[in-house]
Specification:
It is built from five helices and nine strands, in the order H-E-E-E-H-E-H-E-H-E-E-E-E-H. The protein is α+β, with helices and mostly antiparallel strands. The strands form two sheets. The chain has a seven-stranded mixed β-sheet. Strands 6-7 form a two-stranded antiparallel sheet. A hairpin with a 5-residue loop joins strand 8 and strand 9. The radius of gyration is 17 Å and the shape is elongated.
């Protein structure tokens, strides 16, 4: 019975991975700059598990909450020395206001290894499109301020750079960490 159960779970995981690959999420590369000005591409993170979130530094509530959750999940995973490290990434969807200096100030409030990435409007748009992230800047108010509406998802990439899973707002840090660990175990 245990053998059959294990086989069924393997088949379900395999089918889910085929379905995820068919979505073609995150298949493309990106060329963005980190907070030190270094150009980064998806290839730079091959060999590492990656948790990737798209957001912006002027976000009043959702982005900070999601980055807190992502940071907590990474801390939970780091507490198990048998697990490989996870690289947390934050890609801005607002390159007009989120230059390297703004990103550096922002990401330091979260996980110490959280890496902020930005680029030109075209580069950011291409990176978001590779993950099918919806992005739309709202109207400017009297002060010139605006909000950016965007998809609220955290993406998991495996060491081969393949999209493995995504997590919405309803998932807790504990659930996210448990899911990532499951993907690591079945990798």
């Amino acid at each position: 019975w245990l053998y059959l159960r294990h086989q069924k779970e393997r088949q379900l995981r395999s089918r889910r991975l085929r379905q995820l690959r068919a979505l073609a999420l995150g298949q493309g590369d990106f060329q963005l700059r980190d907070t030190s000005g270094r150009t980064r591409s998806k290839a730079d993170f091959l060999g590492s598990w990656v948790l990737l979130y798209f957001g912006f530094t002027h976000c009043p509530d959702v982005c900070p909450e999601e980055l807190e959750k992502l940071s907590r999940a990474v801390e939970l995973l780091e507490s198990d020395p048998a697990l490989p490290p996870v690289q947390p990434l934050f890609v801005t969807v607002d390159p007009e206001r989120d230059d390297a200096a703004a990103l550096e100030r922002y990401v330091r409030d979260f996980h110490p290894r959280l890496l902020g990435l930005t680029g030109s409007a075209e580069q950011v748009k291409a990176a978001a499109a590779a993950f099918r992230v919806y992005v739309s800047a709202g109207p400017r108010d009297a002060d010139g301020d605006y909000v950016v509406d965007h998809s609220v998802l955290t993406f998991l990439l495996d060491p081969d750079g393949a999209f493995r899973d995504c997590y919405g707002r309803s998932r807790t840090a504990e659930e996210l960490a448990r899911s990532v660990k499951g993907h690591m175990d079945s990798y």
